[in-house]
Amino acid sequence: MTKSKIAYFYDAEVGNFYYGQGHPMKPHRMRMTHNLLLHYGLHSHMEVFKPTLASAEDMTLFHSDDYVEFLRLVTPENQHEHLRQLKRFNVAEDCPVFDGLFNFCQVYTGGSVGGAVRLNHKQSDTVVNWSGGLHHAKKAEASGFCYINDIVLCILELLKVHQRVLYIDIDIHHGDGVEEAFYTTDRVMTVSFHKFGEYFPGTGHLQDVGQHAGKYHSVNVPLKDGIDDSSYEQLYKPIMSKVMEVFRPEAIVFQSGADSLSGDRLGCFNLSIRGHAECLKFMRSFNIPMIVLGGGGYTIRNVARCWAYETGCLLGIDMDDKLPINDYSEYFGPNHQLHIQTSNMENQNTSEYLQGVRSRILEHLSQLQPTSGVSFHDVPTTHVGLESSEMGNTAVEQTELITIAHDAELEHEHAVDTRSARHAGPAVHVEEVTELPRSTGITSKSTTLDLANAFALPGQSRTNNALPQSSASLGVKHHGTMQ
After folding, report:
1. Inter-residue contact 172 to 192 (CB < 8 Å)
2. Less Cβ crowding at N or C end of the chain, within 10 Å?
3. What is the mean pLDDT of each run of 10 residues along the chain (483 residues)?
4. What CA–CA distance (Å, rounded) separates 457 from 461?
């Protein structure tokens, strides 16, 4: 590509939404991030757009009609009238009903889908939407502070023009909602680097590699507490290099969750802002059209620092470590610096563990020959005649593209019949499958368990379960800690 064209989506209203007292998710962090961008002067190097609000119809390209309609109608004042739906759709403590909930979903989803439209029309090479990246939401279920899965909708839009889309997730939590949506297709590869073991959402085992046509197109990198920049890079760069070699994506969606930073309120990793950003810079070096999204991040002063710095990295601009005077300067005291100090916490990821994980993932990826095994489908027509600043609210045509996510997503209606405790998302609806196929080289359940023990990986792989485990069935902690 020639000089990069970067589009930045931001709605000034996004910082006004409030999950409630004591809730760790604070949309105010987007306003802080934007204010830092302004005072560093980064906005003048990008095309800045206010996203067109996503409509309910847009959302139902992935989510169920009744779930979206519930989100559209429910309010703090009338939620007592919808107790059954609140339970059914998992709208509760972690995912509360708050003022303007549906409008919030429209804003962050509009930015992500609008960014995909710009990439489809080659109007931008890179798109940034820090309000997006809500990767836990399922077809008919809120989860982990996420209501509408803007990432899935973004990828569906990209698939209308791009044959293969790569999704990368460096949030500390597993990108379960996106993985489930594309678990059986070979047109999307999902790669998630996350904390694994008694940690929300409880999925993302090393052996969860995808199913049917999507086998080896789900890559899970399970990590332990305290991982630092050096250890992370030892895994990230070899794995992503191999992914790029064998999958050859035409577009990339990068979820840059900042809860993997050192000192995060809900996190337990020890990455610096530079180490976190190095993941994004590495993918940028491949010169593939890319959408960069936010995600988790609960020490909000560090979230703003991180996303401002990563915006600068995308622009190739060196930023002074001394923060400029800004509207939220009091948040960044006492040192008022862009970069943060990491802690002296123990890194539980030993060199042997890292080598074992890396070797197994590279072995899985080696099962894929470059671009062979990637089916080529007829590409449906994208939105046409849109202004550069608009995503368009007309619904995408009902094509095979929508079926990709709806078939791969475990059907919620089937899950209702097979799960007794919690309507925890969709179930596989492909040829009446009752068990996911095992990976190459795994001949029995005991072999899988031996592998887990060898790498000290707690939990179970999806290879031995008909349905993805919900947090309730795994007995893991909720995403948040809202005592």
Report:
1. no
2. C
3. 79 97 98 98 98 98 98 98 97 96 98 98 98 98 98 98 98 98 98 96 98 97 98 98 98 98 98 98 98 98 98 98 98 97 98 98 94 45 39 35 51 34 31 28 30 40 39 39 37
4. 10
Beta-strand ranges (E) seen in 122-280 are 126-129, 165-169, 188-195, 218-223, 251-255
Please report the beta strands in 54-163, taking only residues with DSSP state E, as ranges in sequence order. 126-129
The answer to whether 272 and 311 are in contact (CB under 8 A) is: no
275: tokens are 């180490």
28 is catalytic: no
Q: Which of 57, 50, 42, 45 is nearest to 11 (CA)?
A: 50
Q: If you ran DSSP here, which 8-state letter would residue 329 be given?
A: G
| Residues 411/405, Cβ–Cβ less than 8 Å | no
Q: Alpha-carbon distance 380 to 435, whole Å?
A: 32
In whole angstroms, how far apart are CA 156 and each of 192, 248, 258, 406? 19, 18, 24, 11
β pairing state of 290-293 and 188-195: unpaired
Does residue 432 contact residue 393 with C-beta atoms inside 8 Å? no
Q: Which residue has the tokens 């593209």?
A: 401
CA-wise closest residue to 112 among 180, 191, 34, 51: 51
Residues constituting the chain: 483
Token code pair at residue 365? 């990826």
Buried b (16+ CB within 10 A) or exposed e, 12-26: eebbebebeeebbbb
Q: Map residue 60 onto helix, strand or coil.
A: coil
Half-sphere exposure of 156 (CA within 13 A, CB side): 30
d(CA 336, CA 172): 26
Q: Is the whole model's pTM more than 0.70, yes or no? A: yes
Pairing of strands 165-169, 188-195: parallel
Among candidate residues 28, 136, 205, 412, the one labeled active-site is 136
Token output for 301: 């002063």
Concatenated DSSP letters of 231-261: HHHHHHHHHHHHHHHHH--SEEEEE--GGGB
Among 171, 164, 168, 166, CA closest to 199: 171
